[in-house]
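Materials and Methods. Structural model of TRAM domain-containing protein. The 719-residue sequence of TRAM domain-containing protein from Saccharibacillus kuerlensis was retrieved and submitted for structure prediction as follows.
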Amino acid sequence: MKNNSGRGNAGKSGGQGRGGGSGRNSGSRTAQGSSRRGDGGRQGSGRGRTASRPQEEITGLPVAKNDEVQLDIIGMNHSGEGVGRADGYTLFVAGALPGERISAKVLMTKKQYGYAKMNTLLQASPARVEAPCEIFDRCGGCQIQHMDYGAQLEWKRQQVADSLQRIGKLNVQTFEAESANGASTNAASTNGAFGEAALMKDATGLEEGTRVSTETAEAGAHAAGPSEAEKQGNAAYEAASAASSAANEGSEAIGYAPEASSEQPLQALEETGFGGGEGDENSDGRIAGEAAEKVAGGATAPTFGSAADGTGTDAAPNSLAKAFGAGTSAAADGMSAPELDADTSAAADSVSASELSIDAAAGGVSAPALGADAGGILVPPTLGMSDPWRYRNKAQVPMGEENGRLIGGFYARGSHRIVDMETCIIQHEANDEMVEAVKEIGRELGITAYDEETGRGLLRHVVVKVAFATGEKMVVLVTNSDRLPKAEQWIAAITERVPGVKSICHNVNTRQTNVIFGDITRVLWGEEVIHDYIGDIKFAISARSFYQVNPAQTEVLYGKTLEYAGLTGNETVIDAYCGIGTISLFLAQKAKRVYGVEIVKEAIEDARKNAEINGITNAEFEVGASEDVIPRWKEQGITPDVIVVDPPRKGCDARLLETIIEMQPERVVYVSCNPATLARDLRVLEDGGFKTTKVQPVDMFPQTVHVEAVALLTRQNSK
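The predicted structure was written out as C-alpha cells:
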C-alpha cells in the first residue's frame, strides 16, 4: 500500500465508508491521476448484481430458479457470501456465515454454481453478531459487519493461507497459538488459528492485545471452514471451493489474463459503496481501479497469458508462461466468473477461471502444495485493531437529488439510486460532519446535483479528508462546471461550519464518466495540502494525492515491512511501486540508500517533497515503470540488497518479477492487497530461487472482506 499522489483513489480494496472509490487500480500506464490504491469501497456503489444480462435457464441442474432449498453453509467466498451445497451444486448466499443452516430461494443458476437469497436462518453461527450499522443490509460497503471481529480476523488469515496453497501451490505450516491457560494450541492452516483464545494483535502490532474468548475462538474456526486435513478428503468442499475460486478469483487476472472485455476491471467487484475497499479518488463507485485509467486514457491492462487456453503471449517470460499456463481445466469446461456487478456483468462471462486448481470441481483433488522445505510458510494471526470502527480518514460521496432536495450518500444495492445518509460508522466522525455541512450549505445555496443520465447539474461529489495526527481538514467540491457558482458564499459557510478546515478545493470534471476527479484542481481557500504523520514521517496530502485511509493500521503494515526488510544501515533498497514515498521514507530511516520508482509523475513529485519536508537525503525517486527503470539502474551499477514491492491488485508486472529474479537481492518484501495475485507472484519468485518464509496478514479494512499481507522472501541461490 502506498501513498500515490496524483493517483486519485482507485486503489486497493478495503474499507471505505462514505462511498469512496475502490479497488486498487492497476496504476501501470497512466500518468494523469489514476490512483493504484485509492481508498476504499466503491464510490457509493452497492454490491448488488444489477443490470445483469438475461440468463437462459440451464437444464439438468439439481436446482432451478425460484426453488426453495435448505443449505448447510460450509465456507465463505472472497466476496463475503456464504457457500452452500444443494445436491452437490454450489450456491452462494449473501449474508450467510459458515456453520449456519438456512433456507434459501434460488435467484440465478449457472453451469457450475448459482446464487440464492436467505429466507430463514435455521441455525446461527457463533460468529454471527448484530450489525451496528442501520443501513448495513442496503449499503454493501461493509460486507461482514454481521461477523464477530475475532472471526473476521481468522477468516482473513485463512484467505491468505488458502490462496498460497491453492493458487501458489505453496506449503503453509502449522503454528502454535497460545491459549488462555498458557498451553500451546496447534493451529493448522485453517481451523485453529484462534485456538481457545489466540491473541489479537492491536493497532500497535504488539501481541499484548485482547484475548479472544472460547466462543469467539469457535466462531473463528467455523468462519474459516474445515481444517486442511478435513478439506483433503471432503469432495463437497473441494467442489464448492473450486466453484468459489472460479466465481471470485477467475476474474482477478491471476494468470495475467485480460481483466474485462468491456474495459472495466473485475477487480471492481471488490469495490463496494459507502464502506468497502480502499479506493481511488479518480474513480466513481461503478468504474474504479483500472477502469479509471481505461476510461480516461483508453489504456488496457497488459495481457501476458490467456485464461481460456492457458497459453502465453510474446510478452510473457517463459518462466511465467510455464507457471501460469497450467491448471485451467475448468476454463476448458467454460467456467466463467459470475456477474457480480452491474458494470462488470458483461465482462464476467467472458473471463474464464485460470490456474486455481479448479479441477476439483470435477471431483478431483488439487495438486499438492509445493514448498521450499517441509516446514512451509508461516502465516500468523491477522494483525487487527483494538477498536475496528471509525478508522477511515477520507470519504468520497456521490451527490444526487430527491424530491428536489440535495442529498449525498451511497448507491442503493442493485441500483444507481443514491440514498441519503448522515453517518458511516467506519468513517471518522469529522468526515460525517463535513459531508453533512456541505450538503446543508448546498441546499441553502440552491445547488443542483449532477445527473449521470443527462450530464446536467453541478455538484458531482464531495470529498473530505481529516488528518488523524494533526486534526487538519480538507473539503473538495467536484463539479460539472469550470466555474463554481457562489464560490465566496461556499467559502464563508464552510469556514464557519467546519472547525479546523485548512483547505477548500474545487475540482473540475465535465466529462460524462464515472471517474470522480477531473484534471483541474484549484484551491478556493487556505492551503493546497493538509499534513499528517505515519509514525515519525510527515506527509503532505493534496486533494488528489492518495494517502492510506487507515493511518493506525498503515503504521502497523509499514512497520512490518521495515521489520522484514532487516535493515542495518548498510543496505541499498529499491521500492518498486513507491507512490508518494510512504514506504520509501520509512525504509530510508534504516537504509544506506533507497531508490523509489513510480509510473505517476505527480506521485514522484510529492515523494520528493515529502523527503524534503522530513529532511531525508538518502532517498531518490524516478518516474517510470518499475520493469523499465530498475534494469536501467542495474546497468548503472545500482545493486539492491532488498527489493520492496507494493503493487496494485493485479500484482507485479511479469517483467518486474523476471528483473527481481535476475538481480537476486538478498531479500524481497512483498506488500499485497490481493492474496490471489500475491500467491501467483510468490510461486514465480520461488521458482526463481527465492524462499517465502512468512506472510503476515494485516487488517487494514475491518468489517470488509479485504485483507493486506506482507511477505518475506530470502534468496536461496548464490549470485
